[in-house]
Amino acid sequence: MAPYESGDATGTARHDEDLRPGRRRAARYVVPVAVVGVAAATIGLVPALADSGDPDLPSITAQQLIRKIAASDVQRLSGTVKIDTDLGLPDLGGLGSGLASGAARGGDGSFADPRAKLTELASGTHTLHVAADGPDRQKVSLLERGAEYSLVHDGKDVWGYDSKSNEVYHAAAGFGAKRGAEPPATPEDFAGEALKSVDATTSVTVDGTAHVAGRDAYKLLIKPRQSGSTVGAISIAVDARTGLPLKFTLTPAGGGAAVLDAGFTQVSFARPAASTFDFTPPRGAKVTEGEGGHGTDGKASGRGSASGGEFVGGLDGLDVLGKGWTSVATFDTGAGGGLPTGSRGGDLGGFLGSLGDQVSGKFGKGTVFSTRLVNALITDDGTVYAGAVTKETLVKAANEGN
Asked: Which one of 310, 325, 358 terminates a domain?
C-alpha cells in the first residue's frame, strides 16, 4: 500500500471553499425533495461489497482528495445500492407503518408520495436501483417484497409510482431545488453534507485505500475534535478515477454498528438506456397531482400532499445554538402543552414517557428522546432542541439558550 498522510488536513480545508463540493450536484441522482422525500438524511446504505486486499494507489493528501471530490463531474451512471439504517429506534410494531400510511393518506395524499416511504426507510434493510443521464434524467427504484416503488425524473416531470397500491404521484421537476430543500440520498450527497462540516472543530485525514463495487478507492476519514458529539467518525470511499464518493459510513461515538453506511454494490458509468426513464401511468392507477404538477386540463395543481419545501417552511424561527459538531437546533412547535407525557397523557402519555428521559433546567421541564445519533429535547412549553450530541450536551445547550 502506498504511504498516506497521517496528520490533520483541516488547516487548509477549512479556509479553501473550493475544497468543498457545493449544492450544484446535491440532487444529481435524485428527484428534487418536493417529490423525493424518500431521500431523507435518516436513510443509510448497507456496507458495499468489498474485495479482499487494498489497492496500491499513488499517495494523496486530504486536501487533494477533497479537491478531487469537488472536481468530480460524473453525469451518467447506473447501479445498485443497499440500505441499512440502525438508529436504535424502538420497535413500534405495526404502529410505524400505520403512521406512514396515515401521513400518505392525509388530505388528498397518495401512497406514491415519496414521504410515505420515510418511516419505513428509517430502519431495516432495503435495496435501491439508481440511474442518471445528466441533470434532467434520473431514476431511483426501491425494491420491496413483491412490490416496487419508483421515482422518475424525465425533463420537466417527476413521477412516483407505488406498485403495491397502484398509485401515481406527479409533480413538476425542480420545485424542491428552487426552495433550497435537497436532502442527501446517494453516497455523493451524504459526502457533500459531511464536508460542509469541515472546520476548525474537525480532523480530516486519508485512511488508506479500498475496493468498493469493483472500483479502486481512497478513504477519507472525518472526525469531530469536540467532545459531546454523538458522531464518532465518518469514512468516505472516493473513486480513484472519477472522484465520485462510492461509500459513506457514519459510526457513532458510542461504538457498535454504523448508523449510516452508504455504498454501491454495483456501479457502471455507461449511459443508461433511454427507456430507463420512460414512464406512463399504468391503466387503472390513481394519479395524484402534487405541487407544480398539471392536471388533465394542463393547469398547475396544488392538490396532493404538502411538498418537502413546505415542511421546511413550517420550521420558521429555527435557531442554532453553539458551533461545529456540538451545535443544537431549536424551534418552537407552537404547542404550548408540549407532549402529553406522564399522567396528564393517560396511557399514551405513559407510553411516550417510557421512550424518553424526564429532565429539567432553566428551560423548565421536558423529555429527552434518544437514538444512537440524534437526541431531541421537547419541553413542556413546546420548544424543541435537537442535535447529534449527547444528552448532557443537549441539556446544557438548552439551559444556555434560555
From this structure: 310
